[in-house]
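Q: Could you write out the predicted structure for this multi-component system? I'm mainly interested in how the pieces pack against one another.
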Amino acid sequence: MQFGIFSVGDVTTDPTTGRTPTEAERIKAMVTIATKAEEVGLDVFATGEHHNPPFVPSSPTTMLGYIAAQTERLILSTSTTLITTNDPVKIAEDFAMLQHLADGRVDLMMGRGNTGPVYPWFGQDIRQGIPLAIENYHLLHRLWREDVVDWEGKFRTPLQGFTSTPRPLDGAPPFVWHGSIRSPEIAEQAAYYGDGFFANNIFWPKEHFQRLIQLYRRRYEHYGHGSADQAIVGLGGQVFMRKNSQDAVKEFRPYFDNAPVYGQGPSLEEFTRETPLTVGSPQEVIERTLQFRDYFGDYQRQLFLVDHAGLPLKTVLEQLDLLGEEVVPVLRKEFEALRPSHVPASAPSHLELVAANDAKKTEANR
Amino acid sequence: MSTLAVVSAGLREPSSTRLLADRLAAATVRSLGEETEVVHVALRDHAHDLTNNLLTGFPAGELRGAVERVVGADGLIAVTPVFNASYSGLFKTFFDVLEPGSLEGKPVLIGATGGTARHSLALEFAVRPMFAYLRSLMAPTAVFAATEDWGAAGEAAGGLVERVERAGAELAGLIDGRGGASDAVSDAGADRYDNVIPFEQLLAGN
């Protein structure tokens, strides 16, 4: 199983000090957080993509390329890459370039975004959200697999004899996740291609995501990619830890109460009960995260949100220490002991994708 | 057996809005002439969870069950006090947090209360258009009860008693007429997961 963190990249005032970081500070903090993730033994760093304040990550491959140069093992990913409003040709180029620079340590997650005006700002129509996600990804999928593409669709200018460069590293396109919090169409899309499905379950109750993930698993099997329990599932998580549970609650409460997403709404206690948010000791985080497997089945990637709501960098780095030292080693061992041998342990790495490609070619040449 | 959900947005205890809702429910049950399960949802009990739902996007705690019971019922009676010439904010909030399509085709009887009959057209100008937008199947009669109605002679032509009986009979007729189709309609949300549109169809044209 792969463990990592995903960042929204929000610039938020620290409610306990009233201090707001500059964009430069926040961007550099994200890089520090990513390199720290590798240092404490995590596997993945994923950044969001946003095109409005108070968010900084509008240019994910620039940031991930820089992080790639400072890390050795970390998988660089996104959460999410806007498949609706980005030109799929540019996504194909940008991520293939990143793949080469990062020696294959790249995958990415497609999403439709949650900010309405981004559609018109990038010349698209929000009412076409799902059709855009479907057509654009279909083109992206071809651009990475066919050297020369002739293409015509509804949403962008046609392509005649187009080759997206650089070609994917070793001929193996990066692994793709599709993220969705409420669209069965996207679970169906992930199943159709045999791609991963990421359910960002952190803000809502589990029942909703059980239906989405069950749908994805069932359809993954239907399309012949393997059995339902072999489908590649990723989940979110949101944690704040201190050695003592009460210290965690006391320290996190002002950040919770003023958080941009749910601030001034339910109490910390109510939200903890209803959603995966866990504020407490490392042991409580371990127990809560292990429950995810009971709800959703064996899964392959767990991403935690740890750097939002104005938490200072120092605190975030302490959270990463706790994750790396106390939580993830236990979770790795426990999940691995429970996993049946026919279920993949993690999303395929670059080398595994290359090997699978080679096997397919050998098969075809027979 | 059918189930009848009764949503009332009265703020005080006891509440004349609740009283009107109960009367409408009783009239509907009498007209259905069969065993009917009546589920009452007093929105006052869910006021905090409704605000939280606006902020978080999901119904927590007891509100979740209330939403499920209303969406799953065969018929709905919805009664609001009139505030500032319209439904109350609490009443609107409840219908704002339901998933799109939840009340499509559902038989609905609307009612409202107010100090004087001068407020009665709020039903036709505010409440009815909202349910029309939600594509509910509305009883033609909407019942408004002003304070003075509670002291009027019972048998008066056009009086509250008659209006309640007529509206209840209309709603019962709509529930009967649907002949159990309500599951298919109200389950539209769950259906999106069970009967997914095959990807080849989504991809058509590409």
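A: Regarding packing and overall arrangement: Chain B has one domain: 2-203.
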